[in-house]
C-alpha cells in the first residue's frame, strides 16, 4: 500500500471553558489563559515514534475568572498540517496531528503587575485526523478537562471549534512513500495512532557473545583532572568480576546495545582515564579518554530510574552556564542527583502523570516545566536516521552523516561550544561540540557497557583513535591479557579515524551498527517491521540555548510559566 502527503489548512478556535468559576471574593485577581500546542510528524515527513516530534504553540489572551460565569475567548489559531493519506478508495488520513490545550492559571493581589507566573491546572487534547473528514465545514467539540488546584479536583469542559481546508499546490511533493504489506498494515498504523499509550518495555535474554572492554593506565590519565588541573596521582586498577544486577527496566534490548563489563575496572577517581573499548561485533576498537561519576541515575543515591530527560536538561544548563569547563566528579554527581530530584517532582505532578503514566517524560515537557533556564532552538536542531539509503521507506530522509557534517562544519562560529541533547532508542544524552574536542555525556552507565553503574563522559580529541578489523578475544584469559599487546601487534590494526571524528564513528559503530545490520537482513528477507525500523534508526539532535537570553527577544505570546512556583501549583 502507498501513502502520500496531504496538506490541510486548519483553524482552531477555543470558545468557552465551562465549570471553572471564582467562588471566593478575597480581593485577588484570578486569570486564566490557554496554551495550545500543535504536535505533528517530524519535518522529514515520517511519523515520529518518539515524543520529540514537531511542535509549535500559541497562547490565548488572558481572561478574568468571574463568579458563576464561563470563560470565553475569541482567539483563533491556524496552521498548515501535513497528513499521510492512503491511496485506497477510502482515502483515509493516517498518522496523528495532536492538538492539546493547557489551562493556565494565575492569581495576584496586585492587578497592575505586567507579568505573572502561571500554573497548569489541566489539559485537554484531541487528534485532528479524527475530524479531518469534515473538510469545508466547521465542527465543534466539547473536550473534558480535569482541573486540579489547591488539592481540589473538579471536572470542566472546553468547547472548541475546528475547520479544515485542503491546500493545493502545483508542485506538491509526494514526500516519502512507505510501502507496507497487508500483513503488517493494521498493526503498524495502530501503533502510529496510539504511540504514547503503547510504549512497551520488554526484557529479553542476552543472546550471543558479548563485548569485552579492556582498560589500561596511561601517562595522560595522570596529567589532568576534569578541569585540566595537574593531579600527579596514579590510577589504581582493581579486578571487579561481579556484574551489577540489571533492574530490567531499560527500554532497549541489551543484547544489541550492551557491552560486557571490563575485566579490570577502575575504582572511581576524579580524573580522566585512557580506555580501550572493543565493539560488541568485534569490528572496531576505540581508544579515548573516559571520565566517570560515582554512580548513575539508577543508583539508590539518585533514585532516577527514568530520569534521563531531566538529567540531560540539568547537564545542558551547566554546560551552557560554564562553557569553558567540564564538571568535576563531585559536580557531575550533584547534577545527576539534581536531575533525578527534578524528575521525582514531575512524577508527583498529577496532571503530568496522567499524560506520562510510564514516567518517561518527553524533552518538551521537562523544558516547559522550567527545571532549568534552557530552551531548544528548532531551526538549529536535526532529525535523521542511520543509513536511510539502505531502506526503501527511508530513502528521502536525512541521514546521520548529513547531520554530523552540519554539526561539525568548521565554518560555523566556535566562539561558544554547541550543546545538543541527543535522543536515540528512547534515551537521551548530551553532546558538547567544541573546537578542540567533542564530549558525550551520558547519565546511564549501561550505554557504555553492560553492567556499568556509573555515568560517564567520553572525550574525543587529538589523542583518540578508532581501529578497524580487530579480532575479538575469544576467552576470558585473552580478554584479561588484551592490554599486554605489543606495539607491533597494535600497528597491524587498521586505523579508521583519529581525533574528533572518532565521536561520529563511536555513535555509528558502537551504538547503531548491530541494529543496522539486523535490519538490513530483515529488509532483504522482506520481513522488516516499519515500527522497528524507525524506532531503532531514528536519532534527534536538539540544539540547546539559554532561555534567559532567548526570552529577551521573544514576544509576550511566547512567555513561559513555572509548574513549581507559588501556592497555586499542582
From TrEMBL:
Residues 1-166 form the C2 NT-type domain. Residues 196-235 are annotated as: Disordered. Residues 226-235 have a biased composition (Polar residues). It comes from the Eukaryota. PANTHER family: C2 NT-TYPE DOMAIN-CONTAINING PROTEIN, EEIG1_EHBP1 PROTEIN AMINO-TERMINAL DOMAIN PROTEIN. This is C2 NT-type domain-containing protein.
